[in-house]
Specification:
about 50% helix; rod-shaped; three-stranded antiparallel β-sheet; mainly alpha
Length: about 130
């Protein structure tokens, strides 16, 4: 098996397998281990480094990229989630609009209203029957 004697090819295949596993499983974790493997493949290709250095660089690049980039990339790849308010979105356009009270609203507690085809939690300073 001469293929296993070529560390560049081994690291490339390991990275490719990690990317394929990422496509099959949710979580956006294996992607960073694939990146780590490809970084090691490039380093082995350009500068002959020992196996211990290869493993150390693989772990360091994979874990650091996971820690620093996963949160940002999760937002990019998962897109907008309905039911979560975007903190940058201004809600003033809904202020003062009328909604149908679906569940009685009592001051100090939360009731339900129907607005634009969805049910929303609502509060009021006065008692509003359904």
């Amino acid at each position: 098996m001469d293929i296993l004697r070529n560390p560049v090819l081994v690291w490339f295949v390991v990275g490719l397998v990690m990317f394929l596993i990422e496509m099959a499983t949710p979580g956006l974790v294996m992607l960073f281990f694939g990146i780590g493997a490809w970084v090691v493949a490039v380093l082995v290709l350009t500068a002959g480094i020992s196996l211990n250095a290869q493993l150390g660089i693989f772990l360091a690049v994979s874990v650091l990229s996971l820690v620093f980039f996963r949160k940002a990339l999760t937002k990019v790849f998962h897109g907008h989630k309905t039911g979560e308010q975007d903190p940058g979105k201004d809600l003033n356009e809904f202020e003062g609009k009328r909604a149908v009270v679906a569940e009685r609203i009592v001051p100090g507690s939360v009731g339900k209203v129907e607005f634009k085809g969805s049910t929303w939690s609502a509060q009021a300073d006065e008692d509003i029957p359904a």
